[in-house]
Amino acid sequence: MFLEALAFLFLNLLLNLAVSASEDGFIYNGFPGANLKLDGAALITSNDLLELTNSTKQIMGHAFHPSPLNFQNSSDGKIFSFSTTYVFAIIPEYVNLGGHGIAFLISSTTNLSNALTGPYLGLFNMNNNGNRTNHIFAVELDRVYNPEFDDIDNNHVGIDINSVISNNSHTAGYYADDTGLFKTLTLISGKAMQVWVEYDGEKMQVNVTLSPLGIPKPRKPLLSSTVNLSTVLLETMYVGFSSATDGPLTTHYVLGWSFKMNGIAQKLDYSKLPSVPRTKHKGRSKALEISLPLASSAFVLVMVVVVFFIVWRRIKFTELLEDWEAQYGPHRFLYKDLFGATNGFKDKELLGTGGFGRVYKGMLPTSKLEVAVKRVSHESRQGMKEFVAEIVSLGRLRHRNLVQLLGYCRRKGELLLVYDFMPNGSLDKYLYDRTKPTLGWDRRFQIIKGVASGLLYLHEGWEQVVIHRDIKASNVLLDSEMNGKLGDFGLARLYDHGTEAQTTRVVGTMGYLAPELARIGKATTLTDVFAYGAFILEVACGRKPVEHRAQDDHLPLVDWVLENWHKGSILNTLDSRLGQVYKVNEAEMVLKLGLLCSHPLPSARPSMRQVMQYLDGDVPPPQLSPTYVSFSNLALLQHPGFDDRLISDLSSFSTVSHDRR
User: Fold this and answer.
1) CATH number belonging to the domain at 302-421, selected among 3.40.50.720, 3.30.200.20, 3.40.50.11440, 3.90.1150.10
2) Rounded to whole angstroms, how far apart are CA atoms 571 and 583?
3) What residues are labeled active site?
């Protein structure tokens, strides 16, 4: 009798478990006691949610079903059909500011510790992104706009094969069965949504469908793509989820998950799914109801003081807001919030001062996100509408080597720009401030590559070409892990819309300005390449492009490096603080690349894509011709009186040819 009762209790326990499994499928209705393989930030919460990331910057989390599944027929190599459905929720800490996303994946391994956060979604890194040896199939739900990886908007679903460059992608949403109309869904709404991913092995077709939780699966899929997975999926693979954050604080949840090989995934039981945590919003303060007699002169005096204070406060925090700015919504910050975040723009919060204004450290009151607030003066309203539109557009740029522009505010004669805060400050301090630790060669090389990657994204990776126009060490900021991020991109455009810069009309810094700017006055991608060349020589040599030294040592940095190259002593130009701790071939390649990028003739400079090929080692190091003409002398040819064909002919003797790809 006792054994029968015990067996009954055991059977009842099994029936009530949220997960059931077989050799070719499983279902999790919530995750109480789920035996998942977790790493990173992933965990099972006390209320049975699978939490992949929490509200922490630049973290990732992975969760895998513990046992591998058989995806390939060993006899003929064909990939089996499979089906999965899951319910997820993405909850941002700050309204309309979330990143990055969540991905369902099929992987040959559960060890993704070498992956990166942010746009790589915890799946890949800069070195293996796109490699066929990854053996990863994923469906991503991404909230951040990143055209380097996806040519789609900032709220999309994508099918990824061994790369975060999606094979096919679409704005998040679903097609209503009754009308056939497409309805957009906001991935970071904080609401639960359901995804279906189905692969037909015979037709080699992937269908991805999305809908709000509770709405039956739409008949028309959001994405339908023909994909041959025979080279992607191995005989046994793991299934699971990956998620990653970047700057904006975001939490990613999975509420339930069902998977099936060679069949339809079992339907989830909504009644057993855990609830989505709700973000707590501060309630509005309620006005006190005052029922005091108005006969007292003392009361009238108090009211006058109160009214005066209110009027004074409104004047103090008055913003310049025009009708056309209403469309920019969350990109616009309240001045009073920025005033409070920076403690009233006190000097103790001052991070630095440059040609474009003063920069203050702050913490946003609601999200507790650390930011840098730049105050830029603008005396003219001419072109301000166009510039603000550009600022909002640039706020959609997403790259791990660009400082994130979060939004703006306008007040009287100034524009306030809000950026992600970089705790280690600007690179120039580590090059010239002797109180700072010396940067080793490996770190310098990674910063050089990172800035090149960010600049390539600005030139070629976005929907528009963005010219930076002020690349220099002081505009490269270092995050908590000493990764270099390029800042102030696009800011110089303010002065094209009717205001004057505090430096020169040709915006930029001496030593980084390409010589043709004096002739044509127009910045191009190749003027950015020139500045980048000066920048990498500066980082490698630990010297500014132009600086006042002793009378016998007054050459510009680029000419000094060129002179040493002619002498066969180019490595002698490296920063003496490096000692002998550097990679000879790598250092020599960087110095030659700096000379090539800094060439006075635009046609002789490589594109940023070619620069990345050199730095990645995809092409042989740049070779400079022995007849390389002195930079200072060749720069004289930029005078308007010289024939352009003569300049072009001379450039052919200055460098080896390189394809512009």
Assistant:
1) 3.30.200.20
2) 11
3) 470
